[in-house]
Amino acid sequence: MPATASRPLRRDAQRNRERIVEAAREVFATRGFAATLDDVAHHAGVGVGTVYRRFPTKEALVEALFTERIAAMVALAEECLADPSAWDGLTRFMTAACRVHAEDRGLRDAMLSLGMKKRFPEAGDRMETVIVELVARAKAEGTLRPDFDATDVPIIFTMVSDIGGAGPQAYERYLRLVIDGLRVCSRNAPLGDPLTRDEVIVMLSGCVPAVRPRSATAP
């Protein structure tokens, strides 16, 4: 007999899964990783046990929701790396990332959380590499101030996306202020030393809720 795990979901089970995923997108978009599987079940109009049968942990649901979207953000970053203008490529990526972070707190938490590289290892490694290359390229072009560091990028994303709570477009004003401050200018005041990678990790841990998987036996 074939294993039951290899059988396609029954039609009603598939509908439930689709309903859960759609509800999760909406709940995580507004509440980020602070949302629970109970919140998702309530929003989907199904019992919490139904959610746990499809997604035994919150971690599993996060991976199902954001794997493709994070891959799309990596593809965008790589596209920006190919921009003829290094400055335009860097700022285009930062603008696009801040927009989606402000509009979808779930995606923001997925990309900035400590577990990103564990949950999405290939995308996480590639994203970090491309951001380093975007910054280095703009510095070499002479358009990005030389004391800016790639470790500053997630800090900026965190600060600007937090402003999104004031309204969907609120982040744009402050992102423009930040970007103007990144351009090389004769009046640039020294920034001081950037945070180390470990210091960035500590800072983000206080800003992004952790995903705490629950036992597969929980509902």
UniProtKB/TrEMBL annotation:
DNA-binding region: 36-55
Domain HTH tetR-type: 14-73
Keywords attached to this entry: DNA-binding, Transcription, Transcription regulation
InterPro entries in the cross-refs: DNA-bd_HTH_TetR-type_CS (IPR023772), Homeodomain-like_sf (IPR009057), HTH-type_TetR-like_transc_reg (IPR050109), HTH_TetR (IPR001647), Tet_transcr_reg_TetR-rel_C_sf (IPR036271), TetR_SbtR-like_C (IPR049445)
PROSITE patterns: HTH_TETR_1, HTH_TETR_2
UniProt-recorded Gene Ontology molecular function terms: DNA-binding transcription factor activity; transcription cis-regulatory region binding
Listed name of the protein: DNA-binding transcriptional regulator, AcrR family
Organism for this UniProt entry: Paractinoplanes atraurantiacus
